[in-house]
Every structure is written in structure tokens, then in C-alpha cells.
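Example 3.2
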Amino acid sequence: MCWICDAKTHGALTGASEHSPWAPRRAFLLAAAAATAAPVLAQVDVGGASSMRKLVPAEMLERSATQQYAQVLAEARAKGALAPDNHPQLRRLRTMAAKLIPYTGQWNPRASGWQWEVNLIGSKQVNAWCMPGGKIAFYTGILDNLKLTDDEAAMVMGHEMAHALREHARARLAKSQATDIGLRLGAQLLGLGQVGDLAAGLGSQLLTLKYSRDDETEADLVGLEIAARGAYQPEASVNLWKKMMAANSGSGGPGFLSTHPAGPERIKQLEANVPKVQTLYQQAQRG
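Structure, written as C-alpha cells:
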């Protein structure tokens, strides 16, 4: 999945049960989840979400993603690579998420009911991702190798959140399944139930999905706006991708850089949109 896609507080960023073997113990997201922000209309223009995604039931894909996320965390824990709740970098990420989550609802009404969660995995991979339903993971490699500032890390997080909010995985999986089974004339040729059954086993594909250029552009712009509303400096998005371009020639390994290639055009699009969200950032700073 998006490494950052084309190039995937005392509270706890999770609404998961205390009895879950993989969920963090603290509900650091409680304050963010309860926030009732009333943002103005979107300042970036990304059009409507893909109608193709409707072929895969959102609830089923989110359940599948939750199961896959639990498996990833369990494997990391077994290797001693899962950061504890008191890890400074993890606390830093959860603080960021708590600032961004209140501004996700306008991009997807389902987000208000997601049990958002953020975890940190010790790995040299330059990678980060957000699964359907708000399950986020960062790898230490992306924070350390790129020496991300808080503003830059927030742009990565906003970008990954945007993939989930715009349901890019849902749309990509729907298109993939439609092609695989010869579905070409619409959902009526197969039946929503059958597509839903297929969705239950799609969790394992979520970490290997490659998004389209349009998906990446949407995630860049939506993530930029969410981060700006959360009081993170918009110009950091440009700085982030300049760092990405520099790192792309190195050996970051599979992950964000392999799935989110950086380039001048990407930076140009961000530069054109930074002024659109500057007022949102300034308002957030004052608030």
C-alpha cells in the first residue's frame, strides 16, 4: 500500500476494545473523536469519489482491513519491532493524528465512526500507510531516514488518511475484482452479494495496492488541506516531496518510495495549492 502511496497525549488513537490483544491501552483519540469541528467548505478541488468503489461493501472491507492490521501488529510485536505506547515517536504521531482526525469527516461521513488507530513499527523501510477504517502505521525508517519535521510528518499522515477517506483501496479492489471475474457491465451482472463475499478476503492485498496517478494527486491535495486545518504548515508538503526526490535515488527499499515516486510535477501541483489552504493554516494557528 501507499508508502506514502505512490513513492504507503495521554489518550490513545483508538476506539478498539481494551480486551483486544493488539490495541493500544490508552484511548488517546478520545478527545479528537469527540471533537465537533465545523470546517468551511473544502479549499482544494478533487472532484467526486469513484463510483466503482460501491461494488465492494465498505463495512466488509473495513473489517478485513482491521484483521489484516491486527496481523501486521502481531508480527511486529513478535519481532520486538512494535513501539510501546510510551515511545516518544509514537506519542508524537498520535498527537498529530488527534489534531487531524476532527477534519476528516467532511471528506467521508463514515470517518466519524472509524476506530482510528496509529502505531509505529521499527524498520528501515521508508514507509507509512492508512488502511480503510483508519488503521495507520508508520515505520521508523520514514521518520529517521528523511529526518521529518512535525509539519512534514503531518503531511505524510494527511496523505495516507486521504487514501482511506477517498476510499482509493476500495475502488482499486473493485476494479481489480471486476476485471478478474469478467465483470464489465456493472454490478448487476454479478450481484453485490458475491462481490461482498470477495471483499472479505481482500485484506491481504491492502499492503500491496498501487494507486493511480489521480489517486495520488487526490491524496496529496486532501492531505494538504487536512494537515493545514490541523495547524501544520502547508509549505511542508513541498519540502517533504523535495526530500522524497532526494531519497528516491537511494536505497530506501520497498515501501513509500517505490509506490509514490516523487517528481517535479507533483511538487508543482502542491505549490499551486498551498496558497489555497494558507488561510486555513493561519486560522488554526490562531485558534
